[in-house]
Amino acid sequence: MTTEYRKYDAAQQHVRDSYKLARQHQTVDFVKQMHTKYLQFNRQIDIWEVHQYLETMIDLSDPDTQLANGHHDLQTAESMRRDGQPDWMILAGFLHDFGKIITKWGTVTDGTSIDTQWAVVGDTYIVGCEIPDSIVYPEYNQLNPDMSKSETNSKCGIYQPNCGLDNCLISFGHDEYMYQVLINNNTTLPEEALYAIRYHSLYLHHRENAYKHLLSDKDQQLLPTLKTFNSYDLYTKHDDIPKLDKDYYTNLILKYLPSTVLRW
């Protein structure tokens, strides 16, 4: 069982490489291009097919576990379930990494393939303003092209103080993608669940408090829920794989989504 987490100093080289490539390429222009390319939702796939795919997918940015993502999602959700968390949080825990399905049709060029995941996984950050030194591997910040532009390398950059995270562009990854999938499939999940899914990789926000100058009242109100969600996401990584109660999760999905078949 893993007892220590986020030990990036001792991480394997492929973890470092993933973060380095993300920092080199994740700019304002890149994120906008990824939104245009991938937020089309013209594929129909059953959620259970996505889960099956994730049972074979390893996150190349994760220093804590080599367990497939589908198993981690179930660990997260089942821990929430045992602790009596609300069903919307349990479903968010189960679905939070499903955006990594993008690696099934992604490309090496833009970092979305199964072999080059730097635009799918890893800690995210706000593009269009300075990248805080509290980020993982801050030595790579200087490689980001936006950091050489005066309009995008200041504390607020292209944003206004207290504009809110919803009005910021976040480096592209599975968080934003899954959030958009749910919104575009008319989910009735509450705002708390959607916020947790959208920002669970933004450790600079919920762990480092590096974006307090950009937060809105909504961000402040939802931060405690995000922190609770993250505690399950991070601290449930171990080698024991729970048994899947498919009927339970199917009923949860159908409570908050019109079908198990979604547009991706």
Give the helices and strands, then pairings:
Layout: H1 13-25, H2 28-38, E1 44-46, H3 47-54, H4 69-82, H5 87-95, E2 126-127, E3 169-170, H6 174-184, H7 191-199, H8 203-206, H9 217-235, H10 246-256, E4 261-263
Antiparallel strand pairs: 1-4, 2-3
Helix pairs in contact: 4-5, 4-9, 5-7, 5-10, 6-7, 7-9
- Distinct helical segment count: 10
Strand coverage percent: under 5%
CATH class placement? Mainly Alpha
Oligomeric state, counting identical vs distinct chains: single chain
CA distance, first residue to last residue? 34 Å
Total strand count, please?
Answer: 4
| CATH architectural category | Orthogonal Bundle
> What proportion of the residues is helical, as a percent range?
40-55%
Task: Give me the secondary-structure category.
Answer: mainly alpha
The 3D shape can be described as globular
Mean of residue pLDDT values: 93
Q: For the largest beta sheet, what order do the strands appear in spatially? A: 1-4
At CATH level 3, the topology is Hypothetical protein af1432
Give Rg in angstroms.
17 Å
The poorly predicted ranges are none
In short:
By secondary structure, the chain is mainly alpha-helical. It is 41% helix and 4% strand. The protein has one domain: Hypothetical protein af1432.
Describe the structure.
The chain is mostly helical and 264 residues long. The chain has a single domain, classed as Hypothetical protein af1432, CATH 1.10.3210. 41% of the residues lie in helices and 4% in strands. It is built from ten helices and four strands. The chain has helices at 13-25, 28-38, 47-54, 69-82, 87-95, 174-184, 191-199, 203-206, 217-235, 246-256; strands spanning 44-46, 126-127, 169-170, 261-263. Strands 1-4 form a two-stranded antiparallel sheet. It has a two-stranded antiparallel sheet with strand order 2-3. Helix 7 (191-199) packs across helix 9 (217-235). The longest helix is centred in the C-terminal third of the chain and has 19 residues, at 217-235. The two termini are 34 Å apart.
